[in-house]
Here is the input.
Amino acid sequence: MRKIKFSVVVLLSTLLLTPATWAVETMPDTLVEETAQEVLAIIKRDKDIQSGNKAKILKLVKSKILPHFNFTRMTQLAMGKNWSKASPQQKKKLEEEFRTLLVRTYYKALAVYSDHTIKVSPVRNMTGKTDATVKTEIIQSHGQPVSIDYSMEKINSAWKVYDITVAGISLVINYRGSFNSKIRSGGIDGLLKALNKKNRMLEDKDKEKEKNTVLSIQSKRT
Here is the structure.
């Protein structure tokens, strides 16, 4: 799970680009390469992001990153065979809760992604194809390189990410195990309740941390 978390951080980071660039049809490997370089520059010069400014990071994630994910397919893959058992209303709610979980779990780590580089392997023979795997290697300032594969699909003219694989471990399949466990014990509604509870817990932790930060600043001023 630690490597999965790191991979999501990398993925979130490499997808921070203006919508105008995404509107132009581009090879998926070129897209990752170009966005990665621009994002590194953004993070390195933005002191607020580096300091972990929640409001600014979340705004950045919601406006620049989330539109480039296929959360419907990600949720479907994470649900596996149980997806067909969910009602349309449950599917919508599952997607919302899963998206919220991913954002709340990983957004803060963007603050430390200023001393990494990404090496992207070329994707070949893409003529007429709408699905691709972009293989990358993340070079850390400390520690061994991390290999990460991005599963992407082209919807109309835009490439969207629907899975990440780190050292052979798929993000969505990794979640599938815990999802199946919750469904076996409490059905799909049980899974929804568990996701909602987890999201509320993460939100409460953020609020508590913000409160403590404010109190700490106030105490230093007195």
About this structure: Confidence is low (pLDDT under 50) at residues 16-23. The beta strands are 117-120, 131-139, 146-155, 158-166, 169-170. The two ends are 42 Å apart (CA to CA). The longest helix spans residues 171-221.
